[in-house]
Amino acid sequence: MTIQYLPPKKISSFYPPQRTLMGPGPSEIAPRVLAAMSLPCIGYLDPVFVDMMDELKMLLRYAFQTDNALTFPASGPGSVGMEMCFVNMVNPGDKVIVCRNGVFGGRMIENVTRCGGTPVVVEDTWGEPVDPQKLEDALKQNPDTKVVAFVHAETSTGCMSDAKTLVEIAHRYGALTIVDAVTQLGGSPLYVDEWDIDAIYSGSQKCLSCTPGLSPVSYNQRVVDLVKQRRTPSQSWFMDLDLVLGYWGSTNRTYHHTAPINGLFALHESLVLLREEGLENAWARHTRHYLALKAGLEAMGLTYLVKEEYRLPQLNAVRVPEGVDEAKVRKTLLSEFNLEIGAGLGPLAGKIWRFGLMGYSAKSENVMLCLSALGSVLMDMGYPIKVGVAEAAAHQSYAEQHAQAAKKIKGS
C-alpha cells in the first residue's frame, strides 16, 4: 500500500511575481536570455553542445579581456568560483594575505583556513578601498607569502579597489593573486591581462543578466603551472582543475559532471548580448544610469557611504536617514511597488540600503521607478521630500549626459 504524505495545503505550479530587481543581485534576466533557458535540453557531450562550450570560452575571454586558455564557467555560483581558486592554489601551510574591507574578503579568509593555509589579514574600513601601502607593509613582514587575495568590487559596500596596483605589488614580492570580480564583470572596466591578474572569478547573475548558478573563472599560465606541480591533490574533487580540465579544457572531452546545460545556454546568450552592445558601451551604460540615480537620491537629501572616486556604478550603498526604519522601507517597496533593494550586511546592517544597477536592470525606467517609489515611501514615513524633485534631478542628469555625448560626437 502506498502512503501519500500530503502537505497541509494544495500545491500547484509556481509562478513568481514580476519584480523590479534593484538589489545587490540577482539582476533582472534579459528576455533573450530567458528564451535561451527554455530551449530543448541536449547531452553534455553532444557535439553541438561541445561547440557551444568553445564559443562560451571565447566570449568569456572577451568579457574578462584575456587570452587565458583556462577561462570557463564553473558550475555553481560565485562562491564556487571563489572556492575553486583557493582549493587549487593554496596548499596546507601556505601563507595567504587576504585584504578585507567587506563581507566577501571575510569569506576569502574562511577559504584559506579550510584549505589548511595561514591567513594574514589586511584590514580596511568597510566602505573604503584596500590600502596598497598596507598590503605592501604586510608583504614586507611576510616575505614567504604565496598568494594575495582581495575583492575588486566589494558587493557589501559598493566600493572598488585598485586591482592593477594591488596585483603589481603582490607580484613584486613573488605572490600570486586571486581577485573577486563577482559584481565587476560586465559593469565597469576590468582588464585581466593588462593588469596581470593570476586567478579571477565572477558570477552570472549580476552585470551579465543571466540566471544565478554559474561562475565565470579565468586562470593564467602561472596558476596552471602551480596546479600541475601540486604534491597532493586538491581537497575538492568537484573543483579540482586537473579534473575539470578534462571536460572544459580539451578537444576530446571526458565526463566530469552533468553540466547545467540550459543555464549554459543562457550564459552564452547573455555574453552574445554583451558582445553586441560592446564592453565599453556596457560600462558606459552602467555609469549613465548611476549618475541619474545619484542625482535623484542626492536631491532627496540622501548620502552615499563610499567616496565618489571609489564607487561602483552598479552597486550604490546609500546611508539610511536618521529615524527612518530601513527594513520597513524595503518591505513597503517590495509589497507596494514590486521593487527589491538590498539591506546592509555585517556592521552596516540597518545603516545602509544597497541599490543595484546591474545588467538588464540598469535602465532608465528602473531608475525613475526607484526614485518615485522611494520618495513616496519616505514621504509617508514623514521624511521631508518635495514631490518630483528627485525625478526632476534624474531627468536633468540624463539631459546633461545626452548633451555632452552629442557635443563629443559633433566635435569628433
From TrEMBL:
Keywords: Aminotransferase, Pyridoxal phosphate, Transferase. The keyword Flavoprotein does not apply. Belongs to the class-V pyridoxal-phosphate-dependent aminotransferase family. GO terms for biological process: glycine biosynthetic process, by transamination of glyoxylate. Substrate binds at residue 354. One of its GO terms (molecular function) is alanine-glyoxylate transaminase activity. It comes from Ferrovum myxofaciens. Residues 84-344 form the Aminotransferase class V domain. InterPro entries: Aminotrans_V_dom, Aminotrans_V_PyrdxlP_BS, PyrdxlP-dep_Trfase, PyrdxlP-dep_Trfase_major, PyrdxlP-dep_Trfase_small, SP_NH2Trfase/AEP_transaminase. Its EC number is 2.-.-.-. SUPFAM superfamilies: PLP-dependent transferases. This is Alanine--glyoxylate aminotransferase family protein. The modification N6-(pyridoxal phosphate)lysine is found at residue 206. Its cofactor is pyridoxal 5'-phosphate. Transmembrane segments: none annotated. It is an enzyme of class 2 (transferase). PROSITE patterns: AA_TRANSFER_CLASS_5.
